[in-house]
Structure formats: C-alpha cells, structure tokens
Specification:
Protein name: DUF8094 domain-containing protein
Strand content: 25-35%
Distance between the termini: 113 Å
Number of helices: 11
Helix content: 10-25%
InterPro entries: DUF8094 (IPR058407)
Largest sheet: 9 strands, antiparallel
Low-confidence stretches: 106-114, 247-271, 282-295
Keywords: Membrane, Transmembrane, Transmembrane helix
Number of strands: 19
Oligomer: single chain
Structural class: alpha+beta
Shape: elongated
Pfam families: DUF8094
C-alpha cells in the first residue's frame, strides 16, 4: 500500500508541473497600420490584466520607447497626429485608432509654423522624443525592443523611432500569470518519503521472514531415511564464457535498485523551485507596487494638480544637468550651457568663463553635484511653465555647502533649465515643505498673504544693504543670522572706500535684476522665494587724474588698465528667501545666495 500511495502522490505532483500546468503569461498583440511616426499605448491597454507589463516591439531601425503621464505625452505630441492603441473589452484584443493632433501649446514656440517663400506655412519637422525630461524612463534598441514596467493608472507608453521614420508596427503586451503549484513540492517530497518508508518496511518484512525459518524445537526421532546419492558438483563458469543475454540478466538486478534512487533524487531536486511550495511569508492578496511613481499622493489630494515631476524623474534630470555643468566648467565652453541653463544661472557661468580666461586667479564656481537630492519640491502644475526646487548635497566633498537649484520648464518639448543655482548659507534652516508626491502650490508674485510680496523682496533687501538699520524694511529681515549683508552691506562698502586712494570716489547702488520671481508655498503657509538683484559700483577719480587698476576680475571683463573717467561694475545676486505668512512673528530669512561679477566697463 505504501508503494501505491507513493506512486500516486509522485504522479500527481509531476502532473501538476506538466499536463495540468497553467500558462506562465497572457499576451495580446496587434499590427499598426500606416506609417505614422508616433504610437501611444494607452493606459487601459497596459492595465487590461494584473501584474507587470512586458511590452515587445518589432520594427525597422533604431526603436524607441518611453513611458510617462498620459497628459504629458499628449502635450508633448501637441499638433502631431499619432496612433492610439487601446484594449477592447468585448474582443479581448488590442485595437488601434488614428488621433488628430491638438492645438499647439501657446508656450511651445518650437512648433509654430514658419512661412516658406510662397507665404504659406512651412511644414515643421517632427521633434525627436529621445532625451525628453517628460519621460519617466526610456529605452532604445535596434529593430526590436522589449521592456518590463509596472505602471499605475494615468500612465501611457510612447513608441517611435526618431520622430520622422515610421514607428514600429508590431506591438505585443504580456502579463505574468500565477502558475505556481504549491502542492507539487509537498506531493513529490511526501511520495519520495513514503517510498523510502515502503522500502524500509519491505526490508523489515524480508528479515522477519528469514528469521522465521530458523531452528525449531527438537521433535521425536522417527525412522531414518535412506541416504540419497550425492548430486554432481556444477562446473565453474569463467567470466569470458558468459554470453550477452546472461550479462544483461546479471546487470539488470543491480540497475533495478539504482532506478528508484535516481528517480527520487531527481524529483527532490526539481522540487527546490519556489513555485513548488506554498508561500507562507506574504498574504495571497498582496499586489505589486507600481514602479512609475512609488510615492503616489494620498486619496485626499487627488483633486490637487499633480506635481511637476516625480522623484525618479527629477533625479534623472539633475544627473543630466550635472553632466553638462561639469563638462562646461572643465572646458570653460559657454556654448554647452544654454541647453541646461538660463537666466541668472546662465549669465553667471558665461561671465565666469570669460573672466577666468584672462584672470586664472578667479575662484572657480561651486560645482553642481548629481546626487543625492536632499530636498525635492516640485510645483503643483499640470500645465506650463513648470517649476521645481531641489537641494543637492555633495557626496564627494561634504565640506562644500549644499546647492539649491530652481528649475523651470517653459513648454512640453523643452527640457528643464537651471534658472537659479544658489549655495545654501552655512546656518540656513530650510522650512518644512510638502512631500514630493504632493508638491508645493505656486505663490503669485503679488500675493498679499505673506509678510511681504515676493515681487518686492529684491528692492526691500537692496534697501537694507544700502541703509542698514536706517532702512524701513530692516525689522522685517533676520539680519542677525544673515551671512550676506556683512559681505556687501554698509560696513563692507566703507571698508572698500578706505582701501581706495583718497583721489578715488566709490559709489554703490542696487536694483531688482531681470531674473523671474519664483515662489513656492511651504506647509506653514509661508513661501520659498528666489529673486535676482543687481548691485552696481563705480570708482571715479576726483582730482581729474588717472585711476589705475591692478589685475582683477573687473579688469579682465572691462579690459581697462588706466582711465580718467572711472570704471563701473555690476554684480548679479541670486537670492533664496523664506518669507513667513501674514500675521506670523517670524522674520524673512535668507537661505542662500550667489554673488558674481557679470559686467565691467569704463564709464562713458
């Protein structure tokens, strides 16, 4: 009975992994008609079944695939026609439909049609989707491509080549199925154990039978039987006299004992897979975590605009920016900067390269590290322009102060650019901000819900620099913990005057710079505000004599060695403030600054 039960258990266990085994995945596929350059696989097609989605493409040329928010993909496509792939619940198959492009985003000037020689709108070339900051991730391959993602709702996939050539036509989506057989392992193992138990019982039975044939009690002697003649002794057979059939019969008995051992061993080894055994470590109802945005906002925030970027998205953007900045800083090639820098941050580096070309003693600008991002504060915004603020630590040199980047994206097809690159002050305390999955609400420059309008910050702070305690705004700022005013304020200006010859006059002034005012809300209803301020300084002779300048950054930019008219210089200040809410007892705090020379010339 043990052998029969063992055979049944092993057979049933093997059958679960063979003839009764369910498919490992389910898939649907389609062939896109036409030669459109873009195809969008809709979110409903990706979520037609549970589990991670494996998308396989086959076409010709260098295949491209990316995934991102559906609204972002459609905004990037703009007025371009594309093919949408959806899932038909009735037929359980993929279906395709042509979609006409929408009106061009008003902020996206790259797609406004130009005029040809006949006065008609000229056809603009389609943009290349590779490297766009809108994508959460992207892949490329030659002729074919396969990638696995696990996306939540609201995510779609963009398929293309280079934006001009036809997109890959053959699309296949597959999802894994749970074809584990948790009882196969126990059945096979139990059958093997039962088989061994049966063998032991069989051997014990043979031993018992053999012992039962041993000597018995003495019985009464009866009449003796006559002796029988001796049987002739069999002849000894040598090994070389055994034929093939005899050898086979002799060897068979030894193999018979080996086969069960090999069978049990093979089945035991095959049962090592996790799919052969029950999973007692996690509940059966657990579901995979979406990888597109692992920090999804809670349900109570669903009605808010989405954050401008996700954490993985911003990390990838900052890495790209750091590569461009490092290459440009190393080679002092200002032509590399406009792809990732704009506004005050761009002007600062352009002028720094120009100064260092003839004045190597000029201190090198603080590098932009690639990671880690200590603070991530994206703007709540589903349209454009978009803004994000991040504070980056320097892992290679912890003595370097953290860098704050204020990034802006003006349109869907433009990448994020650094508007402000500000070094945090040593004793700066960053206010508490919302999680990156929720983002920060934008604050209008003219809002009255703060102790000071963001658009007035540059002028008010400049007045404090020029007048110190005599300024009407002095009491609104936390000057006690301000590390910038001592460098450029009244006391610093008087020291510079004292260092100049008595025949030279020094005049200083300041004004708000052309950089935009960027303000994002904090949890306590205050705001983080980035502004730009220009500080002007003029040195003129007061005795109709000549002013001579030593080697300096100003001399490098102006090219003036001696002058009877004097020299004027302009410095750009990138300033980051925390502005409390109206009614708060706190003061406006300077969180960080960047102070750089951007112009110098002889006074006309």
């Amino acid at each position: 009975m043990a052998f029969v039960a063992a055979a049944c258990m092993i057979a049933l266990g093997i059958a679960q992994r063979t003839v009764f085994l369910e498919p490992a995945s389910v898939s649907v596929s389609t062939t896109v008609e036409g030669n459109g350059p873009f195809t969008v696989i809709d979110g409903d097609a990706l979520l037609a079944h549970e589990g991670a989605q494996t998308i396989s493409l086959r076409g010709s040329g260098n295949t491209f695939m990316s995934y991102g928010r559906t609204a972002d993909i459609e905004a990037w496509l703009g007025d371009i026609d594309f093919t949408r792939v959806t899932y038909d619940e009735d037929t359980k198959e993929l279906s395709t439909a042509e979609v006409r492009g929408q009106t061009v985003n008003p902020m996206d000037q790259t797609r406004l049609p130009s005029m040809d020689s006949s006065g008609l709108p000229a056809a603009a070339p389609n943009p290349n989707p590779r490297g766009s900051d809108l994508w959460l991730d992207e892949w490329t391959g030659d002729n074919s491509l396969s990638a696995t993602v696990n996306v939540p709702e609201g995510i779609s996939i963009l398929v293309a080549t280079d934006g001009t050539a036809p997109a890959p036509k053959n699309i296949r989506i597959s999802w894994p199925l749970d074809n584990s057989t948790p009882w196969a392992g126990p059945l096979i193992a139990g059958g093997g154990i039962l088989l061994l138990v049966g063998l032991v019982l069989y051997l014990l039975a043979l031993l018992h039978l053999r012992r039962s044939r041993g000597p018995r009690r003495n019985l009464p002697k009866g009449p003796r039987m006559p002796k029988l003649p001796k049987a002739p002794k069999p002849k000894m057979i040598k090994a070389n006299q055994i034929n093939g059939a005899q050898r086979k019969s002799i060897g068979r008995s030894s193999r018979i004992a080996v086969v069960p051992v090999l069978l049990v061993s093979g089945l035991a080894l095959s049962g090592c897979s996790a799919s052969f055994w029950p999973d007692l470590s996690a509940p059966a109802s657990s579901s995979p975590t979406p990888t597109a945005d692992a920090t999804a906002p809670p349900e109570q925030f669903d009605e808010l605009p989405p954050p401008a970027v996700t954490v993985p998205q911003l990390e990838r953007i900052v890495r790209k920016i750091a590569v461009v900045a490092n290459e440009a800083d190393t080679s002092m090639n200002a032509e590399l900067l406009p792809s990732r820098f704009t506004g005050p941050a761009l002007l600062e580096r352009q002028k720094d390269y120009q100064i260092r070309a003839s004045f190597p003693e000029q201190p090198v600008l603080a590098p932009i590290p690639a990671s880690p991002l200590e603070i991530i504060l994206p703007q709540q915004n589903a349209s454009w322009p978009r803004t994000a603020v991040t504070v980056i630590l320097n892992e290679e040199d912890p003595t370097i102060a953290p860098m704050t980047l204020v990034l802006t994206q003006n349109s869907p097809r433009e990448n994020y650019q650094v508007e402000y690159a500000i070094t945090l002050a040593a004793d700066a305390t960053f206010p508490e901000v919302a999680p990156a999955s929720i983002g920060a609400p934008p604050v209008a420059p003219d809002t009255k819900f703060l102790v000071m309008k963001p658009e007035d910050l540059a002028a008010a702070y400049g007045d404090v620099i020029l007048k110190d305690t005599a300024s009407e705004y002095y009491s609104l700022f936390d000057i006690e913990h301000d590390s910038f005013v001592p460098q450029v304020g009244v006391a610093a200006t008087e020291k510079r005057r004292a260092d100049l010859p008595t025949t030279t006059d020094l005049t200083v002034s300041n004004e708000p710079g052309p950089g935009p005012t960027v303000a994002l809300g904090t949890i306590d209803s205050g705001a983080i505000v980035a502004v730009n301020m220009y500080q002007m300084e003029s040195a003129t002779p007061n005795d109709n004599g000549t002013v001579e300048f030593k080697a300096s950054a100003s001399k490098s930019l102006s090219g003036v060695e001696k002058t009877t008219k004097g020299v004027t210089s302009t410095r750009s200040d990138q300033l980051l403030f925390y502005v409390p809410a109206q009614g708060s007892d706190e003061k406006i705090r300077l969180l960080g600054f960047a102070h750089s020379l951007i112009a110098a010339s002889e006074i006309p």
